[in-house]
Design goal:
Annexin V, domain 1, two-stranded antiparallel ribbon, 3 domains, 21 helices, 338 residues, mainly alpha
Length: 338
């Protein structure tokens, strides 16, 4: 009865994870290549959760397929290395590290990885009393959206200083990392291997600013400009903004338009010029374009802040899809892509 209860309690994702854990690394990585980052994260988390599952439950899940694949690997033994290898083969080193940072349990190799398991408010409360340089380093390690949330929760007078320090970060040497890890060790009582890391920089500051709200963005840039106008302009030029969509190919725009909220699109287009609007409309069916135009006319005047927030929401979707490899978006700052 206990085994029956375990089987009945398994989610579909956990059952898929059992199959993945029984496949060889190459086969499993081929499957992961066809999943979105969020799906990879959920499946990876489930893979950790089923390490101790009993064999009878495995048999229930796999049925006749178990006899073919059960010899390829086993659950629990070397699971950490197995999952890391599969993720790396499927996603590449950088994306794999990003995913692993979110799904690896608290025995992480680096104390700072524990932050990936915390929400923005908890992180902000944890680091608010640290030196601004330490705060900048920590936020630089976070996902851009999470970094923006943490930044928003820090005192307003700190925000411009933090963004300025992030933008000025380049190669962080072991001494700086050692100081950061010392802080994290005090928080989590963990050890780690120190090495030089590439964090921060103009692009990191711009990526974080892309996810801040319009009023926070304006306040931060105003304060940064007082101290270093060139730095402010460099960050702005590296940011991906709604108007940059004009440089995107039609196929990417078509894919993006199918993924954004219609209400956001109606609001966002209220603040664009005819060139960009016409390009976006050309990537839709005639009927869909006409419906959007009708809704724009019916909406009447809207506040600029509402338009800006809608544009940011669409850009957030675009950046996530770009990170997933679903679309390619030509961005600012030379020939780089975002």
């Amino acid at each position: 009865m206990a085994e029956e209860s375990i089987f009945e309690g398994l989610s579909g994702t956990q059952k898929s994870a059992i199959l993945m854990m029984l496949l060889g690394e190459d086969e499993a990585s081929e499957i992961l290549k066809n999943l979105s980052p969020k799906e990879v994260q959920h499946l990876g988390t489930a893979m950790y959760s089923v390490q101790g599952i009993d064999q009878n439950t495995v048999n229930r899940v796999l049925d006749e397929f178990l006899a073919i694949i059960k010899e390829q690997t086993s659950l629990g033994l070397g699971a950490g290395n197995y999952i890391r290898n599969v993720m790396t083969k499927a996603l590449g080193e950088d994306r794999a590290q990003s995913v692993l940072g979110r799904i690896t349990p608290s025995s992480s190799e680096r104390p700072i990885e524990i932050l990936d398991w915390m929400d923005a408010r908890a992180i902000s409360e944890l680091i608010v009393d640290e030196h601004p340089q330490i705060i900048a380093l920590i936020i630089s390690y976070l996902d851009s959206a999470m970094g923006a949330d943490v930044l928003n929760m820090l005192p307003e007078e700190l925000q411009p200083l933090i963004v300025e320090r992030i933008a000025n970060l380049e190669n962080v040497q072991p001494d700086a990392i050692r100081e950061l890890e010392t802080v994290m060790e005090k928080k989590f009582q963990a050890n780690t291997t120190l090495r030089a890391s590439q964090v921060g920089g103009i692009k990191a500051a711009a990526a974080i600013m892309n996810f801040t709200s319009g009023d926070v963005e304006q306040a931060i840039f105003k304060a940064v400009a007082k101290k270093d106008r060139n730095l402010m302009q460099a960050i702005q030029e590296a940011m991906f903004v709604f108007d940059n969509l004009i440089m995107s190919d039609n196929k990417s725009l078509q894919t993006l338009m199918r993924s954004v909220d219609t209400e956001d699109l109606v609001l966002a287009l209220k603040g664009t010029d005819d060139v960009l609007s016409d390009k976006i409309f050309s990537c839709m069916s005639s009927r869909a374009a006409a419906n959007i135009q009708d809704e724009m006319e019916a909406l009447g005047p809207v506040r600029l802040t509402e338009v800006q927030e809608a544009q940011k929401r669409i850009i957030n979707v675009a950046r996530r899809m770009s990170d997933e490899g679903t679309i390619v978006l030509a961005g600012r700052g030379g020939d780089d892509y975002v």
